[in-house]
Specification:
By secondary structure, the protein is of the alpha/beta class. The chain contains 13 helices and 17 strands. Strand 15 (about 330) and strand 16 (about 340) form a beta hairpin.
Length: about 450
């Protein structure tokens, strides 16, 4: 009898397409071109440059920062000279202020962050300071500053630290390979988090299509005291979403508008843990990340360790280029990835994959009328009614969208994936959320005007 693995309601089972890079070791890459660092690589206040044109910089040196608590500094990933500070296109297609560094190829290192042989001797407040100074953000894609995540509001007791090793997005293997190649740093990063929250249990959640990673982490935990354990999860998308992980590990649902800390949880990605370890123990900040360069239009799919700021074009060249003109190039995976307008843009802290699909693989979504089949409702992991949300957004009835719980949409793409009418359900949910936010911004002004009368 097979043991039932933890899971959640709804969700979908797209082909995982992991085989292209699942067994490929991470390859370090050194770019030849300029490195470009956008000032908004995280959720929160954008940074401002603290260097100017002509300045010499070292790898690991802070080049931009912000005073706001919810922000994270940007560090140079190479040594060289600041060539320009100006507006450039980013991977999302928007324009942002960027620091451009001409690489001298030396990789001379800035040693501002001190190493620590014994992290247990480092005061928790000092750990949080180092995590901030190292520029660490959620490396699973959300890019929420990690020092903020590790500073829950007073009175919130953290009982579970849930490590997200699910990597449920098809095609991507950057977290899988990191668990296989750096398990000690990941487990060490979790131990540092448990040093910050000594009453918490450490749970490492890994989808069951990564048996080697499960075994590798379990082997490391066997040498520890039992306060951490691996829980293999059913392979189902979007298992790696924060709310899904909290539900499958603890059985708790997060009420609308509440935070994981409100139910005693912190969810943290495996690469984020890796950086917490290297920042505190080795004194090495976030200057690079693993990116799966993959898809049927890529000649030699690879998992590449790239300095942040590297051009996507150079990464694709490192994977031997395209086999044919891709019909679609995405930053991230096929479910939540962002369609790219150009490959002459830099990789950022949250870039987990570059996916290039041929015309045979890319879906061309010609919409037709809803046939009321209900598949989107069955697939929605948040228990929403995507077809109804779609209808009210198209009518611009944002109040109704909110009343139907549309703000709880996690934009996972499951409804769009299953819809036989190819309705752009996830996009209309995004539009609905933007419409509600715009209406909320206008509301106080309207009330203010009313009071004056
Ligand atoms: S994108 Fe939103 S509405 Fe669609 S399935 Fe995901 S959570 Fe539900
Ligand atoms: S899956 Fe598509 S066709 Fe079916 S109910 Fe939902 S929106 Fe309508």
């Amino acid at each position: 009898m097979s043991l039932k693995l933890p899971t959640f309601r709804g969700g979908i089972h797209p082909p995982d397409n992991k085989a292209m890079t699942a067994h490929k070791r991470i390859e370090a890459f050194r770019p030849a071109g300029d490195l470009v660092y956008p000032m908004s690589q995280h959720i929160g206040a954008p940074c401002a440059p603290i260097v100017k044109k002509g300045d010499k910089v070292l790898a690991g040196q802070k080049i931009a920062d912000a005073e706001a608590f919810v922000s994270a500094p940007v560090l140079s990933s190479v040594s060289g000279t600041v060539k320009e500070i100006g507006m450039r296109m980013t991977i999302s297609g928007s324009m942002d202020q960027c620091v451009v560094v001409e690489n001298d190829g030396e990789y001379s290192y800035d040693a501002t962050l001190p190493p620590h042989d014994d992290f247990k001797s480092v005061d928790p407040k000092e750990c949080l300071r180092i995590i901030r100074e190292a520029g660490i953000v959620g490396m699973g894609g959300a890019a929420f500053p990690t020092h903020v995540k590790l500073s829950p509001p007073p009175g919130k007791k953290i009982r579970w630290i849930i490590v997200n090793g699910a990597e449920c997005e098809p095609f991507l293997n950057c977290d899988n390979r990191l668990m296989l190649e750096q398990p000690e740093a990941i487990v060490g990063g979790l131990e540092i988090c448990m040093h910050l929250f000594p009453d918490a249990k450490g749970i490492i959640a890994i989808e069951n299509n990564k048996p080697d990673a499960v075994a590798c982490i379990q082997e490391r935990l066997a040498e520890r005291d039992g306060s951490m354990k691996v829980i293999p999860h059913e392979v189902k998308y979007p298992q790696g979403a924060e709310k899904m992980l909290i539900y499958t590990v603890t059985g708790q649902e997060i009420p609308p508008g509440a935070l994981p800390a409100d139910v005693g949880c912190l969810v943290i990605n495996v690469r984020t843990l890796f950086h917490i370890w290297t920042a505190i123990v080795d004194g090495v900040p976030v200057v690079d990340r693993v990116i799966s360069v993959v898809g049927d239009a890529i000649a030699t799919p690879k998992n590449i360790l790239a300095p942040l700021g590297t051009s996507v074009r150079e990464l694709i060249d490192a994977a031997e280029g395209f086999t044919e003109e891709p019909a679609k190039i995405l930053s991230g995976g096929p479910m939540m990835g962002i369609s790219m307008r150009s490959i002459d843009v830099p990789v950022m802290k949250g870039t987990s994959g570059i996916l290039a699909l041929s015309a045979r693989s890319a879906r061309h979504l010609e919409e037709s009328n809803c046939i009321r089949c209900g598949r989107c409702v069955t697939a929605c992991p948040m228990g929403l009614l995507p077809s109804s949300l779609d209808r009210v957004v198209r009518l611009r009835e944002y109040g109704e969208f909110e009343a139907l719980g549309g703000m709880n949409c996690i934009e996972c793409g499951s409804c769009t994936y299953v819809c036989p009418a190819q309705r752009h359900l996830t996009q209309t949910c995004r539009d609905g959320k933007a419409g509600v936010m715009a209406a909320r911004k206008k509301a106080p002004k309207a009330e203010g005007k009313g009071e004056k009368k």
